[in-house]
Amino acid sequence: MTEDEAANNNYLRLRDLGIDTLQESVIYMRSDCHVCKSEGFGPHARVEVVHGQNSIIATLHVIGSDILHHSEASLSKVAWQRLRAKDGDTIRVHHAPAIDSLSFVRSKVYGHRLDDPSLYAIIKDVAAGQYSDVHVSSFVTACAGDNLDRPEILGLTRAMVDVGDRLSWDTSPIVDKHCVGGLPGNRTTPIVVAIVTAFGLTMPKTSSRAITSPAGTADTMETITTVDLDLSAMRRVVEQEGGCIVWGGSVRLSPADDILIRVERALDLDSEGQLVASVLSKKAAAGSTHLVLDLPMGPTAKVRSEETAGVLSDHLIDVAASMGIVARTIVTDGSQPIGHGIGPALEAWEVLAVLQNKPNAPEDLRQKSILLAATLIELATELEQAQAVDVATSFLKGGQAWRKFQAICEAQGGMREPPVAPYTQPIEALSGGRVTEIDNRLLARVAKLAGAPSDRSAGVALHKKVGEKVEVGEPLFTIHAESPGELRYAASFATLHRQVMTIGDKE
Hints:
The chain is of the alpha/beta class and 507 residues long. The chain is 42% helix and 19% strand.
């Protein structure tokens, strides 16, 4: 094709610049290229990009330098993948068609209810990549707070399931657990999966990455084994070992949820209605029949009062029942972190310590994992609570859970040792006394400033918990980082915000 023919047909040749924008499809074009001139494209225009039989909607970023030739364009990493294109291929670029579902988003912004067809249209377009991050953030914000009623939450949950894949299993029950979040270090899932699958229950666990926390279960597990499994690999692991612990984003179960989560993370939002839809859409898509939900409650947790816990619990149980899932909620202590490590690798080390019955394993993490595993066993069998606790305890102490965890990791791609941060700095007490309060949100902020969760070994290691004595100059916690700059930044924040850990009188 000649250059004139390409110009007349809005063709451009692709050049790979190696740009990663996570999940947002972006196209890069020169402002003076023939397509921008003929179509009247400007910065942040939404355009349709066609490559063979594949097409995407992408956001245009305009380049004014010679990094691209007039006849070239480039794409973000995810856009290359969605188009199945490679360097040197030819694409065709046009104005994007109107996105009709955006009218429903605007309606929600103005306070109107969304019915099931409207929610399905929105979620379908989100999952298909039709929405820019600006569009997604508008939808997320419009639904934040208490802006979704019970029918809307159920409609959103169903829509998120319907636009993705759905697993079915030849056995029953299919058990699962989930924590609503907001409590640093609360990494019970790998231990619970190991216990209940060693017992003989089936638990195909899909987990999310962090939204507003320093580590999600998938982030922590990724320091130990492979979590980026496709559906066929996930099914193979479950059929072989009875369970798995994989990243939900890699298996297209509720695919819109991962897009919403990415934008929620940037906005630092995690609204109640979307939380319910996010959790239960993935559980329903994974084929779960029995579900235990952990609701940590505390003054600086996500759930801060009994009233909030009650409303959220009612939403979760009722929507779960509508999706055919038997659910039980447990309100747990969210006044301070569970364990001592906060951040992917630091939490992974403690998971391994509990599973291996090491003397230094955090007792609160051990006991909470047993409680959740026992509740799941009780829910899915005919055992009484006390019997289920005895079973869970014996499978952990007897080593069956550790052997099962190793087998699951080997089936997922093999085990590895979590990394250790090259840079550390303790934050010391300026006064003596007892720890009277730990601010979960500020502590999580310190861990994130240190680089967690993207830097796997970054985070915070607690040395003191609420009620423990502290002497002047004694370390309260140690910051772990992968670069000196992040270490200084996190330490400066921690020093400035001493209320991360409040020290009261000695008695």
